[in-house]
Design a protein that fits this description.
heterodimer; A: mainly beta; 2 domains; four-stranded antiparallel beta sheet; 1 helix; about 60% strand; B: alpha+beta; Rossmann fold; Dna Ligase, domain 1; D-amino Acid Aminotransferase, Chain A, domain 1; eight-stranded antiparallel beta sheet; five-stranded parallel beta sheet; 18 helices; about 20% strand
Chain lengths: ~180, ~500
């Protein structure tokens, strides 16, 4: 099976063949040597939140790697050391099907400003209908006792402000919608 | 000596202080909010008591409740750590009134140094140089602009009750004054309950160098050398080192004497820090005094061989200092990187659960931390995860060890500034010791991405995982935590062996 993988901004075509209980992995027809592949499952349950992940260690061409893989609906989150990358993987069969359905890997982002962290909205600096330039201050959010100004990520007109001053917000909660 | 001490704090500093108690054979009492039930400082203490709900104002800042717990648990002394109530003179006074000992300076000294304007006045009187600025709190924008034009832009707006960069703004022109004043005031109000603001001349590329002093209740004062804390973001220190690459022994002695004059001016005892700004010509100006143990105290401990937390406890118990100024010799070089849960590019705080956690170790590495696997980094408290400290025979040795330690440090589940530190440590200006509080603005660029090999390794791991996930029905199930492993350990084992002998 051939897989298309996107790691951050990089794209790979990787072939994986299962041969008599062993894996054969190739990148552009060149074999990649994988040894000592070990998987451990990880799980935390705190309050009502449950998280599971796979922790894998292996040698790739004799170089050691430790990677933690978390899967959500659309992507993998890979921790390598203490660094995070987002990965998307799709096998060619699924990719072809997705193409017919008009869906593609890494589709465009909606023009919405979402909360980069949980906190509390302490000030709103713009109004609905206002034109803003990229970099203009939109909202002030207090988190960890610090005030942080959230700035416009692109120029445009404010269509909707989905929060009020004094309101607590969650990470990734939509705050401002652009036209 | 005390038999039992209550530690009125959380996180890494609470753990640090529990360790000092254990080293001295003293029992420790922890307090914890509902958000910290499983925290490290709860597990390591001899006793732990709930102090209230998650918001600090209802738990770690609840003076009466904390004193009640101290009394009920029969603690004889209270250590405030840093942050929270550490520089609250009412807390120190109330502890003494309750018949307990406050492990820190006299409450009068906290009050005087806590009022940044009163402190400035006292320093001028003692002949310690200060940065030009206002003597009184400013009322409005017009007055602020007037003063700023007199001393010259850029100026720094600061909270009179301030500290830790909260309520602080740089103002470069008249036009910026109004919004900066408003922002600084509201931040000061929420952080300190005091919105008085004053103005100082903003020095262009200063170094931040501070002197650690220690004094007993018998009038003995000793300075323990300097710490350079110029690497700051959002006016908060992130990398500190001792000694400073800019300070020679003559300057150290001069600054040390100035620091002691400062401590004497407020009849200080216990550990304290006098912060100075140092300009390009190595002239130093009093900035403020921190009347507590500093976050970065370990680097002084490493280069002097003293345990400052232990010394604090001995001083509070009435003991005389066991050393004199002549006994203090700075040996080797120490560096500290503050490991924060924050984005390494825009420095916004990050939250989440820690999945995996592995601390670095080996020669010359010390980690002061208070976290564990499965812990939630919540928005309620300071996002400091750990202080990573290295010690080497000289500055480059300490830097090499720090790079090694940063590479070994594994924290997943929460974004940290580990890559930020790695990037700073590699910068030629940093290696040359050319530091200033504007270092990050001038030199920092975002950390390098993954190498080709690293990206490919992640791609391969993702493909294998995806394959196993899709073929789980036929062989075994992945991705369902411990349940799966218990259910099909043999199958799992077999599959892994097959992979290994590929």
């Amino acid at each position: 099976m051939i897989y298309k993988v996107k790691v951050g901004e990089k794209n790979y075509k990787i072939e994986l063949i299962m041969e008599s209980n062993s894996f054969n992995i190739k990148l552009n027809n060149k074999a990649i040597k994988i040894d000592n592949y070990q998987i451990r499952a990880g799980r935390h349950e705190i309050s009502s939140t449950e998280r599971t992940w796979q922790f894998v260690t292996f040698l790739k061409d004799n170089q050691p790697y430790e990677i933690e893989l978390l899967k959500d609906d659309t992507a993998y989150y890979c921790w390598l050391g203490s660094r995070l990358a987002q990965c998307e993987v799709v096998d060619e069969k699924t990719a072809r099907y997705a193409k017919i359905m008009g869906d593609s890997i890494g589709s465009g982002k909606a023009r919405v400003l979402s909360a980069p962290m949980p906190g509390m909205v302490v000030g709103i600096e713009v109004n609905v209908g206002q034109n803003v330039k990229k970099g203009d201050g939109l909202l002030i959010v207090e988190a960890m006792k610090m005030e942080n100004e959230l700035k416009a990520t692109h120029s445009g007109t404010i269509k909707e402000i989905k929060v009020k001053a004094g309101q607590s917000i969650e990470k990734n909660q939509p705050l401002v919608v652009f036209e | 000596m005390f038999k039992k001490i209550l530690i009125a704090n959380r996180g890494e500093i609470a753990v640090r202080l529990i360790r000092a108690c254990k080293d001295m054979g003293i029992k420790s009492v922890s307090i914890y909010s509902d958000a910290d039930q499983y925290a490290q400082h709860v597990r390591l203490a001899d006793e732990a008591y709930n102090v209230g709900p998650p918001p600090a104002s209802q738990s770690y800042l609840d003076i009466d409740e904390i004193i009640q717990i101290a009394k009920n648990s029969k603690a004889e002394a209270v250590h405030p750590g840093y942050g929270f109530l550490a520089e609250n003179h009412n807390f120190a006074r109330k502890i003494e009134e309750a018949g307990l000992v406050f492990i820190g300076p006299p409450h009068e000294a906290i009050e005087m140094m806590g009022d940044k304007m009163a402190a400035r006045k006292a320093m001028v009187k003692s002949g310690v140089p200060v940065v030009p600025g206002t003597e009184k709190p400013i009322d409005d924008e017009i007055e602020a602009i007037d003063i700023a034009n007199k001393i010259g832009f850029p100026v720094l707006i600061k909270a009179a009750a301030g500290g830790g960069g909260k309520g602080m703004r740089i103002v470069k022109s008249n036009g910026e004054m109004k919004s900066s004043l408003r922002g600084a005031r509201s931040e000061a109000k929420s952080a300190f309950g005091d919105d008085r603001i004053y103005i100082e001349k903003y020095l262009e590329s200063p170094r931040h160098i501070e002197i650690q002093i220690i004094a007993d209740k018998h009038g003995n004062y000793v300075y323990l050398g300097e710490r350079e804390c110029s690497i700051q973001r959002r006016h908060q220190k992130v990398i500190e080192e001792a000694p400073s690459p800019a300070v020679d022994s003559t300057m150290r002695e001069q600054m040390g004497q100035a620091a002691i004059a400062c401590a004497k001016a407020c009849k200080y005892f216990n550990a304290g820090t006098i912060e100075f700004l140092v300009d390009a010509d190595l002239r130093y100006y009093f900035l403020e005094m921190n009347t507590r143990l500093q976050v970065e105290h370990p680097i002084t401990e490493l280069v002097t061989g003293l345990d400052l937390a232990v010394e604090q406890i001995k001083i509070a118990a009435g003991e005389k200092l066991s050393f004199k100024q002549d006994d203090i010799h700075i040996k080797g070089h120490a560096m500290e990187c503050r490991i924060y849960a924050e984005d390494p590019i825009d420095f916004l705080p990050a939250t989440g659960f820690i999945h995996r956690y592995r601390e670095p170790a080996g020669p010359g590495v010390r980690v002061d931390s208070g976290v564990y696997e499965g812990m939630e980094i919540s928005m309620y408290y300071d996002p400091l995860i750990a202080k990573l400290v290295t010690y080497g025979k000289n500055r480059l040795d300490a830097i090499s060890k720090m790079k090694r330690a940063l590479d070994e440090y594994i924290i997943t589940g929460v974004i940290t500034n580990i890559t930020f530190h790695r990037k700073i440590l590699e910068h030629p200006a940093f290696l040359k010791g050319e530091l200033s509080t504007h270092f990050i603005d001038e030199y920092y660029s975002e950390p390098d991405g993954f190498s080709e090999d690293e990206s490919l390794a992640m791609a391969v791991a993702t493909v294998i995982n995806d394959y196993m996930d899709k073929n789980k029905a036929s062989s075994f199930k992945m991705g369902n935590g411990y349940k799966t492993r218990r259910g099909s350990t043999w199958k799992m084992k077999g599959r892994l062996q097959a992979l290994r002998s590929r």
